[in-house]
Write a structure and sequence with these properties.
- With 87 residues, this protein is mainly alpha-helical.
- The protein has one domain.
- The protein is 53% helix and 9% strand.
- It contains five helices and two strands.
- It is elongated and about 50 Å long.
- The protein starts with 6 loop residues before the first helix and ends with a helix.
Length: 87
Amino acid sequence: MQNTTSASDMLADGTDFGVLNGVEVRKGTVAAWVANAKKLESLRPTDPGYADLAAHLRQEAVKVKAVGVFDILTPRSPQLAAIIDGL
């Protein structure tokens, strides 16, 4: 019995997306979401681009949730917590 899951178990080589919990998730989605979350943390709510970035994070959070990230990790920032609240 195998006790670990590898990246190729989740998404076979040559495959660009998978369906997890009924949601189509493209490879790189979690990494992109984290990168954008870090960008949001460097902005103030009044900065240009903040609202668009927050909206994008909210839209993509559904996919990150489907992967299970929010089942084991909780955002430290109130801004990110508010974005994923209610998913």
